[in-house]
Structures are given as structure tokens and as C-alpha cells.
Amino acid sequence: ATIAIYLGAPLLIRWGSFHTVFAFSGFAALAMAVLWRVLFSLWFGGVATSEAVIGAPDETPKAEPFTRHALMLMGLMMVAIVLQGALRDGVTNWMPTFVCESFGLDSSSAIMTGVLLPVFQILCSQAAAWLLRKFNSQEALTSGVIFAVGTVAAVLLALVVQHSVALSALFMAALAGCMHGVNMNLICILPPILAGNGKVSSVSGLLN
């Protein structure tokens, strides 16, 4: 769907204006909401009643105080998450504008280069899962390796940034994709190691 948006938005801009993109996206979201509501009712027959949920036995483990090691680990994770978030979201939002201003492409063509972003996101997420298995589920080590690969992409980007639009877009997409892999490890996979504290959801929400 993301790839389709990157490909379709330039066509809508050429056909109409940027207003057309907003209108089309709004109608698509409304149609998807209605379709989801209808199909959910057909497939699942509604949701569990509140009485059934309240009557279920409470099996939530008792929360325990965080250890000093867990607090230090969360602090380091927060620093890494801020850095990867700045790189991932910054590159994603900046890429079309950079391509447009640096190489003189029109807006629709610059947006179309963004199709590389979701492609690399998928590839890097799969690579991150493979590395995690390779390193025996050591999430921090895996994140460090992916950060190193992203650093290489950033250095190569700095070398070609004024010379080639294709290579610039490629390395920017690779950098953003690597940060998606780091995000998957630090926010989606690593928090459950604190399960002994009974605060996994709190930790995950805080990191998010």
C-alpha cells in the first residue's frame, strides 16, 4: 500500500494538484473503514462483551520494581531510539525535498523516488530478523550491527550527495531502512526481556 501511494501521488498531482492527493486519501480511508467494519462483523461476529472480559480471572503477574541494570538498559535504549527515529523520520520526510532542490526535479518526480523507502524498509526488516537469528536473539548486538551498516550508508551518501540523484536516493533509502530494522529490535523485540518485572507493556509504551 505504501509503495502504491508513492507511485500514485505523483500521478494525482500531475492530474490535478496536491489537493487531489488529500481528497483521494480521505475517500480511500473512509472506504477502508467501512469495509473493515462490514468484514469484521461477517468474519468474527462482533467482539467479546465487557461482562465476559470482567468475569475472566485476573492472571496478570505482580509488578516488581525495576533493577538498576534494567533502568540503565532502558536509558541506553532511549538514546538509541531517539537517534534512529531522527534518522528514519528525518530522511523519510527530507528525501523528496532534497531531491527536488538539489537536482532540479519537479515535485511529482521527486516524490516518486520515495518508492525506494518502503522497498528498503521491507528488505531491511527481513535482514534484521535474519541477523537476530544469526546472533542467537541478541537484540542489542543486532541493533549495533545494523547501526554500523546505516553509518556506512550515511558516509557513502555524503560522498555522492552532490553528484548522483540515483545513488543519493539509494543510500538515503538504505539508511532509513536500517533504522527501521533497529526500531524493530529495540521497540518490538527487546522490551519482553523485562517480563520478569511484569511491566512489559509499560516499558514498550514508554519506549514508543
Helix and strand topology:
Elements: H1 2-15, H2 18-44, H3 50-55, H4 68-103, H5 107-112, H6 116-134, H7 139-160, H8 165-189, H9 200-207
Helix pairs in contact: 1-2, 4-8, 6-8, 7-8
What's this model, at a glance?
With 208 residues, the chain is mainly α. It contains nine helices and no strands.
Give a description of the structure.
- With 208 residues, the protein is mostly helical.
- Helix content is 78%, strand content 0%.
- It has nine helices and no strands.
- Biggest beta sheet attributes: none
Total E-strand runs: 0
**Helix-and-strand structural type:** mainly alpha
On the 0-100 scale, what is the average pLDDT? 79
Q: Which blocks of ≥5 consecutive residues have pLDDT under 50?
A: none
- The H/E string reads HHHHHHHHH
Taken from the alpha-carbon principal axes, the silhouette is: flat
Alpha-carbon distance between the termini?
23 Å
What proportion strand? Answer: under 5%
C-alpha Rg (nearest Å): 22 Å
- Please tally the helical runs, counting DSSP H or I stretches of 4 or more residues: 9
- The helical percent reads over 70%
Describe the structure using short key phrases.
9 helices, mainly alpha, flat, 208 residues
